[in-house]
Design goal:
Blueprint (H helix, E strand, L loop, with lengths): L8 H16 L4 H8 L3 H11 L4 H26 L10
Amino acid sequence: MTTRKRHTPEQVVRKLTQADRLLTDGKDIADVCRELQVSEQTYYRWRNQFGGLKADDAERLKDFEKEKRASASRNAAAGSGSAPPRHPTP
């Protein structure tokens, strides 16, 4: 069994571009995935995530998602230690 490899967004876009060329040449999806050394599931996931992006667009998207997750965790941490809201007494 092969070990799991993480691909950078640039590598993903490069492989998707290569896949497009191979599909245009008449190869089927199974052959293309075998040549790219990825599963069909990975190919389709990448196609959904990075479909029409160029390499620099993909990198910006990943950076944006990373910052969004970091911001959400900071907001959650800041809200968890605060006192409950105070209600005015009549």
